[in-house]
Design the sequence.
């Protein structure tokens, strides 16, 4: 099983990035997919989740209206479109999967966990 994130980088405040997470080795359509982030020196913060069918999305208040999660039903990929980025969005962004709906902030609360991709927003 693998979750492979990509799309991170450095962007100026107000800019946009699109993160991707490719899933391998499990039945993608049977899992909720999530993005969780960790800023340096801080704990994990749940960011967003999407259900099996991709028709229900959930967001943390800190990103609501700026971030959008989606999933490809043909290709086993989940995306996080991040607009109007702020310096406080700077973090390592992890992709996670679980068969249940979760707002967990511990890696152990998810069945699968990616390696993470760094997002840096400069002011």
Sequence:
């Amino acid at each position: 099983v693998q979750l492979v994130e990509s799309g991170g980088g450095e962007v100026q405040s107000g800019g946009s990035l699109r993160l991707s997470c490719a899933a391998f080795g499990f039945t993608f359509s049977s899992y909720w997919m999530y993005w969780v982030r960790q800023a340096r020196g801080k704990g994990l913060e749940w960011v967003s989740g999407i259900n099996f069918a991709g028709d229900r999305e959930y967001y943390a208040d800190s990103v609501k209206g700026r971030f959008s999660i989606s999933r490809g039903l043909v290709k086993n990929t989940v995306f996080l479109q991040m607009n109007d980025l702020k310096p406080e969005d700077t973090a390592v962004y992890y992709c996670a999967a679980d068969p249940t709906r979760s707002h967990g902030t511990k890696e152990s609360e998810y069945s699968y966990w990616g390696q993470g991709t760094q997002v840096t927003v400069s002011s």
Notes: The radius of gyration is 13 Å. The chain has a mean pLDDT of 97.
